[in-house]
Amino acid sequence: MRAVKKIVSMFAAVVALSFITFLAFSVLPGDAAEAKLGTNATPEQIEALREEMGLNDNVLVRYGRWIGGVCTGDLGKSERYGRPVSELFSVTLPNTLILAGMAFVIIVVLSFPFGLLYARYPGSIGDRAGVFVNQTFMAIPAFFMGILISVILGLGLNLFVPGAFVSYDEDLSRCAAYLFFPALAVALPKVSMTIRFLRSALLTEKRKEYVRTARSKGLGEWEILRKHLLPNALAATVTFLGVVVSEIVAGSIVIEQVFGVNGLGRLLVNSVANRDYNVVQAIVLYIGIVVIVLNGVIEAFIQKEEE
After folding, report:
1. Closest of 235, 10, 200 to residue 116, by C-alpha
2. CA 227, 228, 233, 239 torsion-angle sign
């Protein structure tokens, strides 16, 4: 019963998001007809094209037509590219997913060893230095981190060529090698946040009574960390990582612009600039669905742990 209620609430949130998204772009000045015809078009030409595209219909009629198409897999047609939105998604979405997946792997691989290490030696010089480094990286926005990586690792050390992106359908290995650097830019601030969260959770567990019992049995500090503290702190950390994943999806939009990645983020920015609202609405709806579903999964996980 609880699962049904959760699914219904998530569905309602998606419907509300879709309507708010559609309504927001409906009230903005300018439309696809003006963008398609350009500044030299006469008002009569623009009005005729609006009528042909159905832009003069009532907003509820247009929303119903759009959401009906979405439910059947028809996301509309891009006025700028002259191609179905679903076709543009099939080209750009895999690049974004590879970028997000690599960023998540980097976060997990770096966060857990350092989180355990800092929790093992709290208050030490290494721990204080780690806290300082974490706070520094947390304060750096992802887009500026991307610029630093491009300048230092790309132009300075020649580890990659900024802007020379190769799509997955051309060469998957070269695509992954290039996407490692934007993934690193997305991941580093999140790594710092995850390390800090994991360290705090481990130190909280470390003050509990069962740790003294484990020490009295002769267990070493590393063994206590791995076998007792980490499993107990893992639930809260996994919940936090779920929030991080939703932030990765949103954070990759700016990074794709910085590194010239042909992903959903770059497509979104270009579509907004050209008032290609069919594409914009579809991408915003996709990101919203991902965030809503992830939050729903996180809430379900938290409720299960509390039980």
Report:
1. 200
2. positive
Q: Per residue in 97-146, pLDDT tens?
A: 889 899 999 998 998 888 888 777 777 787 788 778 878 888 888 888 88
Structural domain boundaries in the chain: 2-71, 89-306
pLDDT the model gives residue 70: 82
Contact 104, 194 (CB under 8 A): no
Residue 152 is classified by DSSP as: I
Superfamily the domain 89-306 falls into: MetI-like (1.10.3720.10)
Contacts of 303 (CB under 8 A, 6+ apart): 2
- Digit-coded pLDDT (tens) for 18-45: 888 888 777 666 666 666 666 667 777 7
Look at residue 172 and tell me whether its pLDDT is greater than 60.
Answer: yes
* The model scores a pTM over 0.90: no
Q: Which amino acid is at 93?
A: L
Q: Give the span between the Cα atoms of 205 and 202, in whole angstroms.
A: 5
| Cβ density class 64-88: b for 16+ within 10 Å, e for less | eebbebbeeeebbbbbbbeebbeeb
